Amino acid sequence: MQPIADGLWRWTARHPGWTPQQGGPAGWDAEVASVYVESEDAVVLIDPLVPGEPDARARFWRALDGDLDRLSDRPLVVLLSCPWHRRSAADVAARYAARPGTRVLAHAEGVPFLAELDAAPVRERDPLPGGVEGRLVRGNEPVELVFWIPAHEALVVADALIGAGGGCLRLCPTAWLGGAEEGRERWRSQLRPCLAELLDLPIRRVLPSHGEPVLAGGRDALAEALDAPPWGE
Question: pTM for the whole thing?
């Protein structure tokens, strides 16, 4: 668990579906990140993944139980960036089903792929709990939401951006968006323009699911990534 700011944390856990074949220069590491947000109106988990190792799993649940006891007047809300980041959303929703206001939210285009979660649909720029705003990023299908948290000047990203280390970002590999030609065309005509629209935000921090977070100068890092080759090239 990494404290980012007062009321904002990022944690990592090993993805249970990861294999060595998914690593490599254009791949992704086994450790992936999730985000916890405390606000006056909700406790928000973004793409939560509960650790699989028994001791770490027990510690995670104890810590989250304690936070929710401390903030007993606030609902628990799970925000999903995309259907393939459902991760531990079902476990979280089931554990706290009796807590008033517990719910899972996802973009309307992704909800049909999340029937087992009974996720409620949201649209781009709908006001979300925790003072969060979703911005639509196309390229991956169904669409991906990146989450903007104005109170922390933080952008939370699923797959569209990779944390390259040293305060740098890279756009995701073109292979993640389809076959060789299809993926490169989506990368060029959809993903890059959508991410470029985020430059109107005063981004200080970028918290990607994959790779290292950017904790200062996030807007500049994003601008540089838009002019750089994709991850792994």
Answer: 0.95
Domain range holding 76?
A: 2-226
Q: Which residues neighbour 2 within 8 Å (Cβ) at sequence distance 6 or greater?
A: 9, 10, 11, 12, 213
Of 44, 10, 198, 11, give the one whose Cα is nearest residue 128: 44
In a domain, 232, yes or no: no
The number of distinct structural domains making up the chain is 1
For the range 91-94, what are the long-range contacts, defined as Cβ-Cβ under 8 Å and sequence gap of 24 or more?
A: 91/50, 92/45, 92/48, 92/50, 93/117
The token pair that represents 203 in the structure block? 């981004």
Condensed to tens digits (0 to 9), the pLDDT of residues 127-186 reads: 899 999 999 998 877 789 999 999 999 999 999 999 999 999 999 988 888 877 887 888
Q: Give the mean pLDDT of 115-120.
A: 91
Q: d(Cα 52, Cα 138) in Å, to the nearest integer?
A: 31
Residue whose entry in the numeric block shows the structure tokens 């606000």: 39
